[in-house]
Amino acid sequence: MTDAQSVRDGAAPAGVWAAPGRVNLIGEHTDYNDGFVLPVALPQAARADVRLRTDGLLRLHSEQAGGGPVELAVADLVPGGVDGWAKYPAAVVWTLRAAGYGVGGADVRIDSSVPTGAGLSSSAAIECVVATAYNDLHGLGLDGPALARLAQRAENEFVGVPCGIMDQMASVCCTEGNALFLDTRDLAQRQVPLDLAGAGLRLLVIDTRVKHDLADGAYAELRAGCERAAALLGLPALRDLDPAGLAAALERLPAELRPPVRHVVTENARVREAIAHLDLGDLAALGPILTAGHASLRDDYEVSCPETDLAVDTAVAAGALGARMTGGGFGGSVIALTAADTLDAVAAAVTTAFTDAGYAAPRTFTAVPARGAHRIG
Ligand code: ADP
Ligand code: MG
User: Fold this and answer.
1) What is the pLDDT of residue 10?
2) Is 117 annotated as a binding residue?
3) Atom of ligand 1 minimally distant from the CA of 121
4) Which CATH number does the domain housing residue 86 bear?
């Protein structure tokens, strides 16, 4: 039966899908430098109830955004042409069509438990849930990396955010109980077991609930700086700069590019170091790597802020094995690796420190590695 027939028969292809948010254990600001990342999917996910339509309309509803549905004509979609939250799902439909897939409209009802703007990738969760639903409903046969690339292109070209591939790969390709070791150059991936409970550990997520305005402009500028540095060094990407040659390479760069380049190169090394420990089953060894990663983001990449610094410093002082900001920076969330029996003390210490500093109380929860995008009904 074709989609059109089934709609006439009152049974348009439909279903329910979920795609998660993520936290990145280590490997920050490396994904647009062809480098390595190590995200885990969160139990918090975007759910989408999707029913195909044959009249070319995309009707988008979000429980969180509220209000009536946003109605868009699929044929009229143009990059930059949709305002507000609806641009994320619309971007996916536009990108599928731009890639040559003859897809049309749908009724899409979104209900997401991923906090927005908290550095936990609520935007990729929306893109990936819609992409996965369309892939299934239209039988497109796209695999995980192809779906992630499509969702990234949607965010880059239609929404206009020059993000790397990590968030979309995490939302689509993560599996329960594992971290995703991803080479963002060729999307080679390996599921790395992360049995936190088995190791007597917990991964605490601290959403600082601040996002400084700087974020978007600074991100584009940092990305451009990395590309300029790679070009000056005659490299395809900063990924290709060997840590052994870092000091000599920095000498060849203008002063303002040296710290960010040092961050990217040492951060890639930290991902490899983390993997080496995880492969030996030594999860606790991640702690100091996280804290070193935070120092690099704060001092070399300069994307931290007083709130994330306070959360990291307080968590470590309260007994966390290590902590760092996660996500693009200038606010968002911090992760802290703790022993199971210090989890509550660490969370309480951070909350008290925020109150004492006059900040709004952070939101805290424990992350358990969850599965990537999938059909649930
Ligand atoms: P992050 O991806 O880190 O959460 P972004 O700024 O990239 O932050 O994306 C947040 C945006 O994604 C929101 O401002 C909103 O437009 C959209 N979004 C995320 N979740 C939802 C939702 N449940 N309903 C509607 N829009 C959402
Ligand atoms: Mg986002």
Assistant:
1) 58
2) yes
3) 2
4) 3.30.230.10
